Structures are given as C-alpha cells and as structure tokens.
Amino acid sequence: MLREITNSKQAEGEPRRRWFTGEQMDLYVWYEGDEVVQFQICYDKGPGEQALTWRHDVGLSHHAVDDGEGGVFRMKSSPILKQSSRFDRDRVCALFTDAGRKLEHDLFSFIASRLEEYRQ
C-alpha cells in the first residue's frame, strides 16, 4: 500500500512533487498547478529495481535503475537510469493497482490509464 510522505523535499525551480512509498514501489508525481505533468513509478525496489516514467511532453519510458553500488573498494555513486529491455506491463499494472488503491481516485485513474496505454 502506498502512503504519502508529506514533507518530501521540493527542488527549487521544479514543479511541485509528491512522494508515495510502499513495500514494493515508490511513486513520484510532479504538478504544475493542479495538473500532473510527470510521474515515475520505481518498482522491484532493491537490486533489479525498474523505473517507469511518464512526462506530458514525451509519454512513457522504461528503464533499469543502476543503484550506484560499484562493488568492493568503490564508493557508492548516485543512482542513475539505464536502458532496460524487460517490461511486463500487466505485472506493473497489477502491482500499481494493488499498491495504489488508497490514492485519490483522480490520481489513481490518471496513472492507471497511462499504464494501460503503454505498449513497448
């Protein structure tokens, strides 16, 4: 179940951001006014994490998350997104439906409809 972190840090000069977290995924949503302009679902948290990002001007994209753990004798780097060939839309839709059922109806419906549109 996703729960909102109400005091999430806001980046100056960027749209307002909301952060929801759960056991299997994190959801970030950016707003300009009341309009959603971007969201990102990070799922399979931990090793093998994946990220699905929607932007109003680009649409959906899918990436693997490189967590920056470089191995022995190397300092941790910042996580980055990298190319990923695997995306199971039905599984991600099911994960989101389960985790997001307590989100506001309009937000849940908006994200669910974007997920249903995605064909890789």
Shape call: globular
How widely separated are the two ends?
Answer: 26 Å
How many discrete domains? 1
What profile does the largest beta sheet have? 7 strands, antiparallel
- Structural class designation: alpha+beta
Q: Give Rg in angstroms.
A: 15 Å
Helices and strands, in order, run as: EEEEEEEHH
Number of helices: 2
Mean pLDDT: 86
Estimated share of beta-strand residues: 35-45%
Poorly predicted regions: none
Please list the strands of the largest sheet in the order they lie side by side: 1-2-3-4-5-6-7
Helix coverage percent of residues? Answer: 10-25%
Q: Give the total of beta strands.
A: 7
Q: What can you see in these coordinates?
A:
The protein has about 120 residues and is α+β, with helices and mostly antiparallel strands. The chain contains 2 helices and 7 strands. It has one domain. It has a 7-stranded antiparallel beta sheet with strand order 1-2-3-4-5-6-7, covered by helices on one side. α1 packs antiparallel against α2. The radius of gyration is 15 Å and the shape is globular.
Short description:
The chain is an alpha+beta fold and 120 residues long.
Considering the chains and any ligands shown, give keywords for the structure.
120 residues, alpha+beta, 2 helices, 37% strand, globular
Layout of helices and strands, plus pairs?
Blueprint lengths: L2 E3 L10 E6 L3 E8 L2 E9 L6 E6 L3 E8 L13 E4 L5 H11 L5 H13 L3
Antiparallel strand pairs: 1-2, 2-3, 3-4, 4-5, 5-6, 6-7
Helix pairs in contact: 1-2
